[in-house]
From TrEMBL:
It comes from the Eukaryota. Coiled coil: none annotated. GO terms for molecular function: ATP binding; FAD-AMP lyase (cyclizing) activity; glycerone kinase activity; triokinase activity. Pfam families: Dak1, Dak2. Residues 371-564 form the DhaL domain. GO terms for biological process: glycerol catabolic process. This is Triokinase/FMN cyclase. The keyword Nucleotide-binding applies. It catalyses: dihydroxyacetone + ATP = dihydroxyacetone phosphate + ADP + H(+); FAD = riboflavin cyclic-4',5'-phosphate + AMP + H(+); D-glyceraldehyde + ATP = D-glyceraldehyde 3-phosphate + ADP + H(+). Belongs to the dihydroxyacetone kinase (DAK) family. One of its GO terms (cellular component) is cytosol. PANTHER family: TRIOKINASE/FMN CYCLASE (PTHR28629), TRIOKINASE_FMN CYCLASE (PTHR28629:SF4).
Length: 567
């Protein structure tokens, strides 16, 4: 397929130039001095309110940077197009807006965002109160069992608007968290698209026959729940609304009060939007609900996706309407999207602020043991040089085919650091933190965040001693961190399967590391017969999931390499 034409310069610079353009046109915004991917209010926070942060991959504009401003967000973190921002960018935003009243981070429910924002929050100590609120309003894939939960879609905008108004009024941290989680429980969104989107410098992300439309697609071009013949606007709205109001999440009843948001996914003309507004309102009036507020516009896009999503919020608290009606000044929340209401730019881009670990910490081990650890790391690096092509092949069955490439980039960086004597192999706790940072910096994305979380959590096992018991604890702590933020469980066909098997075997009274590795290898091979319920593979058909999971096989391979190179 041919590359889609777009008004960009260098596709690799598109995110940075987009941010700069947003800030140049809006004097109420500025770019953080500590990170060029963080957008802040121009006036620094001094009023002691609860600070609010959101973000994620770019390509969804105006979300999230377009909602920075009075009455909404204090900061937005912008990743690459359709890619989660690294945790050090999130950490920079947290430090920029830290306040004694607390900081709340809102994350649309995608694995990479959960992991990277979670990793940043684990490292953040600038406010006495901080928490993550996951936004998961998708109703399209209710029939599939996803451990990661529902996807986050345009309903996030309504939730953020309420949170922003609460913060402006000085509502306490705990009440904002409680209210927004309640809103999430009463929020549902369903999308439909006639044409696929395309990344800058790339062809369309997927092939959709001219006579077809896709119901329930995600905002990154992920598959929806059904492909069906494209029909009239009225028939399309009927299909969307019936699934939405009858979803298990909403289960809407007559006479209930609702807020409705019709969202343009990127390239739907205003003529079409007006027609769709008519159809949605008439359908809801016929159904018999009370439309308390109706918003229509471009709130959360999928680049140039030619589609729309419809969000319904069940109003279980009248205060929510008052917060939605409260004044706000930000580029993405405009008068045209509030039909029920009357309605200094420092842009020098600087490098992201580093987060050094400082002096080596944790227990110091013997030179002999440190040499053995270095040998083990080199063994892992050597194994990945031989195995990365196979990992790419396995990953290509259910993902984007880069599992081997991403891990190879990390192991080559590790090997280079070993060659320069930059790794503190005689202090395991500090070493694990260094390895965590390598994965975060070099790999990035979901894979980088997963390994960074695992290694960072595992490091805590080596604070005061280093033995077989601490190694078993490190495995356990690493697994727990992945499960906490990634939401995957044993049996979901992910890297959690071999890790879980290894942790279970390592807990036996008479521990054998050979047995631990063999347990991990068996669990990795068994993923070939499982249906993916977490990660990107969970959005693919079960027919493509007929070989072992690449991430699981990667874990088994580095465990085997570590064992064989240190025995």
């Amino acid at each position: 397929m041919e590359v889609t034409k777009k008004f960009v310069n260098d596709p690799l610079d598109s995110v940075d130039e987009s941010i700069r353009g947003l800030v140049l046109a809006n004097p109420s915004l500025r770019i953080s001095e500590s990170c060029h991917r963080v957008v802040l209010r121009a006036e620094k926070k001094t009023d002691g309110r609860v600070a609010l942060i959101a973000g994620g991959g770019s390509g969804h504009e105006p979300f999230a940077a377009g909602f920075v401003g009075s009455g909404l967000l204090d900061a937005a973190v912008c990743g690459d197009v359709f890619a989660s921002p690294p945790s050090d960018h999130v950490l920079a935003a947290l430090e920029d807006v830290a306040t004694p009243a607390g900081v709340i981070v809102f994350v649309i429910n995608y694995t990479g965002d959960r992991l990277n924002f979670g990793l940043a929050l684990e490292r953040f100590h600038g406010s006495p109160k901080s928490d993550l609120v996951f936004i998961a309003d998708d109703v399209a894939l209710e029939a599939k069992d996803h451990s990661v939960g529902r996807r986050g879609l345009a309903g996030a905008v309504l939730l953020l608007k309420v949170a922003g108004a609460m913060s402006e009024e000085g509502v306490f941290f705990e009440e904002i968290v409680k209210t927004t989680r309640s809103i999430n429980e009463n929020l549902g969104t369903m999308g439909v698209s006639l044409y696929p989107c395309s990344l800058p410098g790339k062809p369309p992300m997927f092939d959709l026959p001219e006579e077809k439309m896709e119901l329930g697609l995600g905002i990154h071009g992920e598959p929806g729940c059904e492909r069906t013949l494209a029909r009239s606007a009225k028939e399309v709205v009927v299909s969307v609304m019936e699934r939405l109001v009858n979803s298990s999440k909403l289960n809407l009843r007559k006479n209930e009060k609702v807020v409705v948001l019709l969202n343009n996914l990127g390239s739907v003309s205003q003529l079409e939007m007006n027609i769709l507004q008519k159809e949605v309102i008439e359908w809801l009036e016929s159904f018999g609900v009370d439309i308390a507020r109706f918003y229509s516009g471009t709130f959360m896009t999928s680049l140039d996706g030619h589609g729309v999503s419809v969000t319904i919020l069940k109003v279980v608290d009248e205060k929510w309407l008052a917060f939605l009606d409260a004044p706000s000044e930000c580029p993405g929340w405009k008068e045209s999207s509030k039909p029920f209401l009357k309605k200094a730019v420092p842009t020098i881009i600087k490098s992201p602020k580093t987060d050094p670990f400082g002096e080596a910490k944790g227990v110091q081990i013997s030179e002999e043991t440190a040499t053995k650890i270095a040998k083990g790391l080199r063994g892992i690096c050597s194994k990945m040089e031989d195995f990365y092509v196979e990992l790419n092949r396995l990953d290509g069955k259910c993902g984007d085919g880069d599992c081997g490439d991403t891990l190879l980039s990390a192991t080559r960086a590790i090997n280079g650091a070993l060659g320069k004597d930059e790794l503190t192999c005689d202090r395991p706790q500090h070493l694990f933190l260094q390895l965590s940072r390598i994965f975060e910096k070099v790999v990035g994305g979901t894979s980088g965040a997963i390994y960074a979380l695992m290694l960072s959590a595992a490091s805590t096992a080596f604070e005061s001693s280093f033995s077989s018991e601490e190694l078993a604890n490190a495995l356990k702590f690493g697994l727990e961190a992945i499960q906490k933020y990634g939401h995957a469980r044993a049996g979901d066909r992910t890297m959690v399967d071999p890790l879980s098997a290894a942790v279970k075997d390592a807990a036996k009274p008479k521990r054998s590391w050979r047995s631990v590795v063999e347990a991990a290898e068996r669990a990795a091979m068994e993923t070939a017969t499982m249906e993916a319920k977490a990660g990107r593979a969970s959005y693919t058909s079960s027919e493509t999931q007929n070989e072992a999971d690449a991430g699981a096989m990667a874990v088994a391979s580095w465990m085997r390499a570590l064992l064989e190179s240190t025995m």
